[in-house]
Amino acid sequence: MRQKKLILHFRKYLPVFLLGFLSFFVNYHYGFIGVMPMDNFVLYNGGYKILNGYIPFTDYWLVTGPLLDYLNALIFYINGVSWNSYIIHSSLFNLIISIATYILFTDLGLNKKFSLIYSLFYSLLFYPVVGTPFVDHHSTFFLILSFYFFIFAINKNRYKYLISVPFLFCLSFLSKQTPAAYGLLIISPLITAFLFHNKNHIFLKLIFLVLGTIISILFLISFFYLTNININNFYEQYILYAKTLGDFRFSNYEFDLINLFLKFKFISILIGFLIIILLKTFRKKNSISSNLIIITSISLSCLLIFHQFYTLNQNYIFFLIPFMTGIGHIFYEKVFKKKFFLIFMILLCTFATAKYHLRFNEHRKFNELEKVDLSKAINAEILSQDLKGLKWITYKYPNNPEVEIANLLKVMEILKNDNSKKSLITEYQFLAAALKIHDFSPNQWHHPSVSFPTSKQKYFAKYKYFFIQNLKRNNIDVIYETSRTEKSTVEMIINKDCFFKERKTEMMIKFVIKKDCNDFR
CA 237, CA 57: separation in Å to the nearest integer? Predict the structure, then answer.
């Protein structure tokens, strides 16, 4: 009898263990292949900064979510500062979202076999496309979970799940402003509709929502108190300046339905199928919950398409294909007898998953490596033991990663031998961690006009003041900047009479600060 129970438990949880194992290691594998310096190292250095006592928005200008710096710092604290720890972080998140998707599908009535297949497809297309921790992915992760918990609440009227919705939105917003803000706008009317779905339980639903909101507020207060983040700096950098980026994109947006459809054709087709299923379920009695779940799923997909359209990064929302197919599969069988269109959806999902897996995982398109011969990659352990296992190749030196490595070794040697008080501005943000130094960089991320304002943008004067005060507060004598061109961040911000400029290597410029100039008085 006992053996039978063990066998039943084994069979019950085997899909979850299998999914967890595969979803973790598929991301772990691809996270070690190639890098995009500007993007992949940002949070690596962010975690290192937090471990060394830096405070976001005070010690460095930050336009992305502070939560990820602290999460990386936690992983580094537990497992050490290394690329291995870094990829474990994103792999764990890939594991969690994949298992959550499996649980959602089975909870809605899909059999375990298809739930496992769709969730495995999901795990291939969520985090592995970038591999490393990334602000858009983390914000989307928490946003998706908030929608999942809302669906759990709708399904079988389990109102207690509503407690988690506000808290997950809070975590999503602290990871990145969008898509969290879009999601809040979309889910609010859906929650309102759910509140009035069963008027006898409005008060009970409100209690759980209010409780979740109170927990979120208390978390925010605790977060800002424990981290010593300055609220004014947070509001100025994370809200006001970030808003100007969104305003600019909206003002230059030209809606093109055909282009939008072609760009997200597979997701659009599946949305079309879900709309057809929705229209069919409207005719059935007692289908209000089903309707709301389908509408919620469509809304989630549409808001992520909207968000993706405005991001400057590569597309990353292909995981919606297995998600939409799974939702479609669940409700298709409830309203259609013939399985012709269901088979078409499954084949479409399989084809699209294979296509984007090859393009983004195997060929590393997200990191601009799609046309690069990845076999030329070099073990980054040459640069630092912390990067052991990372196969180094970038779009900057696609044919000669040895040259890039050699240049970086020269940069590291100069930084190591310079005992002056120095600040480092670089895309290669592993350098400070590898050398075990403070970089004293006024920026978290070095993408002019996006991560910080330039002279033609609003808030540039505030940023320049922040930049110079940071240098003065830390008594910086020298600024090093990695740049292969003569254009530099330093020269965009500090007046030319305030420094001596010297190119040290092909990759690095040195700026010796003249502290008697007007900017530093």
Answer: 7
CA atoms within 13 A on the CB side of 264: 26
Report how far apart, in Å, the C-alpha atoms of 77 and of each of 49, 85, 160, 219 are.
12, 10, 34, 22
Helix axes 340-356, 112-125, angle to 10 degrees: 30
Please, what is the angle between helix 67-79 and helix 83-107, to 10°?
110
* CA 436/CA 439 separation, integer angstroms: 9
DSSP 337-365: S--HHHHHHHHHHHHHHHHHIIIIIIS-G
Helices (H) and strands (E) in the chain, counts: 21, 6
Per-residue confidence (pLDDT) for residue 374, from 0 to 100: 96
Cis peptide bond N-terminal to 401, omega within 30 = no
The tokens describing 10, both together, are: 């084994």
Nearest alpha-carbon partner for 508 in 420, 404, 421: 404
pTM above threshold 0.90: yes
Main-chain dihedrals φ then ψ at residue 487, nearest 5 degrees:
-75, 140
What is the per-residue pLDDT across 417-467, written as a single tens digit (0 to 9) for each?
999 999 999 999 999 999 999 999 998 888 888 889 988 888 999 999 999
**Range scoring the smallest mean pLDDT among 111-120, 188-197, 247-256, 445-454:** 247-256
> In b/e form, how buried is each residue of 385-398, taking b as 16+ CB within 10 angstroms?
ebbeebbbbbbbbb
Give pLDDT, residue 93.
Answer: 98
Chain-centroid distance of CA 218 in Å reads: 24
DSSP 166: H
Q: Give the model's pLDDT for residue 262.
A: 77
**What is the SS3 assignment for 400?**
coil
Amino acid identity, position 348: L
Task: Tell me how far apart the alpha carbons of residues 304 and 322 are, in angstroms, rounded to a whole number.
Answer: 15
DSSP string, 292-345: HHHHHHHHHHHHHHHHHHH-SSPP-GGGHHHHHHHHHHHHHHHH-S--HHHHHH
Sequence letter at residue 89: H
Residues 6+ apart with CB under 8 A from 452: 61, 63, 443, 463
- Count of residues for the chain? 521
Q: H/E element holding 510?
A: strand 508-513
Contact 505, 418 (CB under 8 A): no
